[in-house]
Amino acid sequence: MRALRSWLVWGVGVFAYLVAVTQRTSFGIAGLEATERFHASAAAISAFSVLQLLVYAGLQIPVGVLVDRLGPRAMVAGGALLMCLGQAQLAAADSVAAGVLGRVLVGAGDAATFISVLRLLPAWFQPRQVPLLTQFTGMVGQLGQLVSVIPFAWLLHSTAWTPAFLSLAALSALACVLVVLFLKDAPEGRARRDNTGGVKEISRALAESWKEPGTRLGLWSHFTTPFAGTVFALAWGYPFLISAQGLTQGTASAIMSLYVLVAMVSGPFFGRFVSRYPVRRSSMVLLVSFLTGVAWSVVLLWPGQAPLWLLAVLVVVMGLGGPASMIGFDFARTSNPVERIGTATGIVNVGGFVAALMSMYVIGLVLDLLNASGFSQGRLYGLAPFRIALASQFLFLLVGTVAVAIVRRRARREAGISPRPLAKVLWERSRQGRR
User: Please, how many CA atoms are within 13 Å of residue 188, restricted to the half-sphere of its CB?
Assistant: First the structure.
């Protein structure tokens, strides 16, 4: 009975996270419609997603502290309620300011969800199950993006702006009700440690979490791996595929669906890899970052519009970034005591969204500057300006990769770890398997 209750709690939590991902990615699907509805520039439209992510990233540490004190149930339910209000506000908005307010509420509600769902895992499952379940949480949650790119996109294009966004508000309301009815912080008989200290205790928990090299390694891992996919899904993917690459809406939706599918399929692989090769977690982070840089380089340097197969390869590589970013949370979990996991996870989760919001804004700013200078020749979302604007992502990839390499050396030195090359370990394992 206990096992059944554990899976029910996890299922409700994952559904709430799935709904949060739907709300997070929905505006990226409506980017072209938003430009017309609000009569806004590229920088103004990017501000919707940038402010949403700014709120999300800014609230990660406070949410981490609060979930350690109030518990996941209160935080997930409150987050769903905020997202419901935010999408209802956006449904009625007819100005940039009103629309931004709606996205800010969505960002605040989204911020309260993922960390809180992850906080449930150590309470309800065995430690050996947590890495794989962390990946499954992210994997199932990515279905929320499919909700955005298929049924929500269809509803938006076949009806109108207001009913489409009201349907998203209703979805968050449903998630809130289910959380209140079925989600519980911990099993019966397992007392939750009292974490209700004041400002001094909160400051101490933050300082101790940050002092752990694993927390900082998790933050930079999360900074580097998922941001390119986040930027693509939340803001610039659809305009790039449709206006710059000349794809139809149906083909663009299929490409975006591939991104979600890859993230889902690869999640269990990353979970098993982390469980079997815990010392090699940072090597996997660096590998995914390298592949992301290579894929974007080929697409941006391709003469003319890229072929569909190459765009598919790009999306496949970016799809690996989400599961790879979960490795950052494993660094936090294994480096901190259970009463600080929420706080440490909040610190880690700041990374990817800070990188995403900075990159997202820079891309929109560069597009507007190129258009104002006449370089775009009246095509704000043309291929040539997009090539220059999207190349700004390499700066964030470089910063994150260098930081991971530096911090992991320090973390390994403090832990007394001197690992053999990953290729050698994998080769020896494969030979043992053939014997």
Answer: 4
**Cα separation of 145 and 230, whole Å?**
11
Q: For 310-323, what is the mean pLDDT? A: 92
Six-digit token string for 166: 């009201």
Higher pLDDT, 30 or 298: 298
Cα–Cα dist 24/106, whole Å: 7
| 334/135 Cα distance (integer angstroms) | 15
Tell me the CATH class for 2-184+199-434. mainly alpha
Distance CA 401, CA 246 (A): 32
Please give the C-alpha separations between residue 64 and each of 137, 202, 370, in angstroms, as whole numbers: 18, 11, 40
Residue 77, CA distances (Å) to 23, 72, 125, 180 in order = 15, 8, 21, 6
- Report yes or no: 330 and 344 within 8 Å, Cβ to Cβ: no
Cα angle at 352 between 202 and 281, to 5 degrees?
A: 90
189 φ/ψ sector (left φ>0, alpha ψ -120 to 50, else beta):
left
The Cα 410–Cα 216 span in angstroms is 10
User: Half-sphere exposure of 211 toward its Cβ, with a 13 Å CA cutoff?
Assistant: 8
User: Where are the alpha helices (H) located in 112-248, listed in sequence order?
Assistant: 114-124, 130-141, 143-147, 153-158, 161-182, 199-211, 213-224, 227-231, 237-239
Instruction: Give SS3 for 95.
Output: coil
Residue whose entry in the numeric block shows the structure tokens 């014997």: 435
User: What six digits make up the tokens of 190?
Assistant: 């397992």
Which long-range contacts (C-beta less than 8 Å, at least 24 apart) are formed by 126-131? 128/275, 130/333, 131/271, 131/274, 131/275, 131/330
| Residue 163 tokens, joined | 């009913």
Concatenated DSSP letters of 273-316: HHHH-GGGHHHHHHHHHHHHHHHHHHHHHSSSSPPHHHHHHHHH
Q: Is the pLDDT of residue 88 over 90?
A: yes
Task: Share the mean pLDDT of the chain.
Answer: 83
CB 361 within 8 A of CB 47: yes
